[in-house]
């Protein structure tokens, strides 16, 4: 196992390579809407690449990358999700898109997609900044994050939304296999044509926004992640369920993804205590020797994901109301069990021709089986097939 000092040297070297910087300097990676290259685009898969770095070497007519954020209030009655996107997204090729959805405690929702002329990732020695800007509308979304992912500040100025969002990490940055960044065996490949890392699996979240003149204030937890795909989400996904949460001393992150490419189901489950990973697996199959987990749909709750009441057309409600997650380490006979119930739908809309995509906030309870049980808050996304 490499020493911490060697790992830090390798991370600094990787950052220098990604930024072009050897000393205290910054580099810019800028893409304009509509600009593209012909042919296949390489997707970065090195475990040493900083998580906020651009992960595609340009854009063709199919690939894209996202920086995604979530937040849930301490009472579970309001929530939000937003994404900085480059490339092909939601039927728009070569786009520079900002997506935002929120739900207030009274159930009122707001959802908006806006498009920038240009996006820039500025990588510096200690921090990385992203800017999505539209010179005509004046839209200007930015995120600025420390390179250890401990602190993220988002600022937004547009015709409809103004304000800030902050995220202070309480769990470590991880790869899908649950190893903590940086790690030589960290693997950011998750499923065919899909790469994923968690910059902040769980953090303390605060939002102070004004949306069309109405305040939106959130204090609770949240998280953020990166995805980069060779093809649009609708082309590679059949269904998925993803959840993050904080419950007592634990934080967790889990994703079950069914691939449209090979028909297989891919799975990741990570449990953390303080900033230590205490459980990680990619396995759903029961084993007598290796850690494994399960991620099952539940229908014992009272809230289903549904279309905004103001929508012109209503979609069928979600087929489930939450989840039951289990994590097992046979060698130590430890088993954790957590139940998640939706408390509010953040968004619910059609995804391609054969699915629905939703964002939720929820309540979570559980802990070590036979030990003390806790309650907390969760958020996540789901894609259902028709």
From TrEMBL:
- Please report the stretch or stretches of sequence annotated as the Diels-Alderase C-terminal domain: 232-381
Q: Which residues form the Diels-Alderase N-terminal domain?
A: 54-228
Point out the signal peptide segment.
Answer: 1-18
Q: Which UniProt keywords apply?
A: Isomerase, Signal
* Pfam families named among the record's database cross-references: DA_C, DA_N
> InterPro entries of this UniProt entry?
DA_C, DA_N
Q: Name one GO molecular function term.
A: isomerase activity
Q: Please tell me whether the keyword Metal-binding is annotated for this protein.
A: no
Q: Does the keyword Calcium apply?
A: no
Record's family?
Belongs to the Diels-Alderase family.
Q: What is this protein called?
A: AttH domain-containing protein
State the organism named in the record: Lasiosphaeria ovina
């Amino acid at each position: 196992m490499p020493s911490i000092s060697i790992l830090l040297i390798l991370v600094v070297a990787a950052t220098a390579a990604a930024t072009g910087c050897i000393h205290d300097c910054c580099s810019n990676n800028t893409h304009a809407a509509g600009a593209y290259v012909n042919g296949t685009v390489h997707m970065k898969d090195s475990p040493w690449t900083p998580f906020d770095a651009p992960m595609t070497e340009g854009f063709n007519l199919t690939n894209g990358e996202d920086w995604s954020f979530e937040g849930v209030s301490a009472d579970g009655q309001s929530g939000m999700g937003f994404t900085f996107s480059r490339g092909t997204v939601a039927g728009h090729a070569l786009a520079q898109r900002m997506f935002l959805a929120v739900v207030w405690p009274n159930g009122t929702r707001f959802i908006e997609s806006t498009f920038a002329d240009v996006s820039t990732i500025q990588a510096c020695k200690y921090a990385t900044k992203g800017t999505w800007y539209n010179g005509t509308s004046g839209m200007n979304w930015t995120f600025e994050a420390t390179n250890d992912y401990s602190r993220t500040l988002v600022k937004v100025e547009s015709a409809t939304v103004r304000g800030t969002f902050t995220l202070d990490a309480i769990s470590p940055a991880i790869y899908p296999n649950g190893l903590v960044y940086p790690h030589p065996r960290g693997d950011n490949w998750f499923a065919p044509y899909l790469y994923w890392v968690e910059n902040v699996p769980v953090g303390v979240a605060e939002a102070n926004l004004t949306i069309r003149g109405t305040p939106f204030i959130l204090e609770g937890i949240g998280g953020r992640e990166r995805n980069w795909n060779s093809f649009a989400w609708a082309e590679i996904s059949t269904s998925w369920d993803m959840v993050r949460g904080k419950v007592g001393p634990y934080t967790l992150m889990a994703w079950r993804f069914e691939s449209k490419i090979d028909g297989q189901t891919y799975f990741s489950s990570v449990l953390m205590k303080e900033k230590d990973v205490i459980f990680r697996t990619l396995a759903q199959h029961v084993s007598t020797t290796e850690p494994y987990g399960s991620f099952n749909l539940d229908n014992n709750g009272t809230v289903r994901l549904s279309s905004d009441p103001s929508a012109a057309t209503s979609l069928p409600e979600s087929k489930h109301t939450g989840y039951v997650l289990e994590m097992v380490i046979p060698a130590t006979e430890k088993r954790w069990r957590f139940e998640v119930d939706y408390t509010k739908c953040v968004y619910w809309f059609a995804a391609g021709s054969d699915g629905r995509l939703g964002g939720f906030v929820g309540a979570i309870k559980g802990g070590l089986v036979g030990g003390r049980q806790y309650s907390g808050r969760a958020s996540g996304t789901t894609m259902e097939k028709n």
